[in-house]
Request: fold
Amino acid sequence: MIGMNYVIIGNSAGAIGCIEGIRQMDQEGSITLISDEPHHTYSRPLISYLLYGKTDEQRMKYRPDSFYEHNRVKTKLGRTVVKIGKESKQLLLDNDEIVPYDKLLVATGSRPFIPPMEGLDQVKKQFTFMTLDDAKALEAAISPKSRVLIVGAGLIGLKCAEGICDKVGSITVVDLADRILPSILDIPGSRMVQRHIEGQGIEFHLSDSVQRFEPGKAHLKSGKTLEFDVLVLAVGVRPNTSLIQSIGGEVGRGILTDDRCATSLPDIYAAGDCTESFDITTGQMRVLALLPNAYMQGECAGIIMAGGEKRYDHAMAMNAIGFFGLHIITAGSYEGEDFVAQGKESYKRLFTKDNRLIGYILIGCIERAGIYTALIREQTPLDSIDFELVREKPQLMAYTKKKRDKILGGAQVC
Reply:
């Protein structure tokens, strides 16, 4: 692969994984990275912690300052790819620059979804909350007296609420769903987390939506009127698929990829939140917008692009998140038989099907969650371990000695 010209669109986890995957196989080929954001690679999930005061921009960096130079990556930051020429194997940038490629990775992530809402154009201080610049703009607009309205009670909306809670006068969250975090929590788990967040003074209006805006007011379908100074739109996200779709690549909700992270187009690969991949817990193609998945997918793509062998074949939904000190880990799919254990400040629900663990919800009690995750990823037959012990308290002693040795990398276990 000497002289290979690799180009990457994007600068988050999938792109970084790709760079490191390429460099595992090819130390000589050229790598060009193009990103519409002007910043060094950073961890997007940390933008709320930046506002919260728990981190700073330097510590948010996903890789050291020397990363691009060390890996001999030419960066074009603050530039947007306008079009991919699949026959000419060239990219057209927004400044009319032409960038050729031999192998291309598309890691364009996702964008905020903003539904049509009457009067939204009358709201002067409105923000989304997905990027570092979004967080900075929101921080500049709020004050200790600000009344903030967040539309969306999912992960993005609630992390935003946590980030600004101590910086504003009040926060109100509106969502059409009947509970918070409906994509990752069941009803009991959602209620537990909601009570915890409400303890910080945050107010919820669920099973409701904004019918229309006027300056400083949101009129809900329920008939309620909410006054606000700052609006945050966190309704959801959509994968950025337009570059691939516009040149005839196969696209569902996200860009369709195989277990080599290849798209349907020659020499074009994709990774991260813009893609769909095969979920081992459901047996279906799904958008799995998670940082660890994005990195693994990007690394796989980079190795394949550079002539190596790798498979991205253990993907599943997984979230590890916390709100005001309450930690949550969820994984897999929620179907089949379940086991529930609930305490005052903890909640555990495990899902099993066909002699396999296929999903879990852990709130508060997250110790050794990695054992549950490994059971799902490795599709371990439950009758090969002491699952009654594992479901009560995950521990390696539930495995056979041979399996424990394998998990611990060959270390001897008594």
